[in-house]
Design goal:
Helices cover 15% and strands 48% of the residues. By secondary structure, it is mainly beta. Strand 5 and strand 6 form a beta hairpin. The longest helix is centred in the N-terminal third of the chain and has 19 residues. The protein is globular, with a radius of gyration of 14 Å. The protein starts with a helix and ends with a strand. The relative contact order is 0.23.
Length: 129
């Protein structure tokens, strides 16, 4: 039962990204949104590669989210409560990797992704380890 709960949590967390979308921060001193997120970064597709050990309470894996960046920016917000993300980067349509940092910034589970440099507009992939 614990295994089923862990799988459900993982899948629903990442599928919830599509419902909430992602969004760049406003200019100036950005404050993480606590309600609905912006639609300026729109998820298109998800690829989940999970490693699950039935004897463990944790799991690991890689998630790739195809997105469309509606405008240029360096900061994105998404829903991701309680996730331990060890690595994240954005891959542009041209194949360039933009290093990023992931951190949960609001107790409701809103996470912030800071890109090393501005990206967009256009298609891209967010890759999480």
């Amino acid at each position: 039962m614990r295994m089923l709960r862990a799988i459900a949590l993982f899948v629903f967390t990442f599928m919830g990204l599509g419902l909430a979308a992602c969004g760049p921060a406003p200019q100036g001193d950005a404050v993480a949104p606590v309600g609905q997120l912006s639609k300026t970064v729109v998820p298109q597709a998800y690829a989940l590669d999970m490693k699950i050990d039935p004897q463990s309470e944790v799991f690991s894996g890689k998630v790739v989210i195809d997105v469309v960046l509606k405008e240029r920016g360096r900061r994105l917000f998404m829903h991701g409560a309680g996730l331990h993300v060890t690595g994240v980067y954005l891959e542009t349509a041209e194949g360039a990797r933009v290093r990023a940092r992931y951190r949960e910034v609001v107790s409701t589970g809103v996470a912030q992704i800071d890109l090393e440099r501005a990206a967009g507009p256009g298609a891209a992939k967010l890759v999480f380890d």
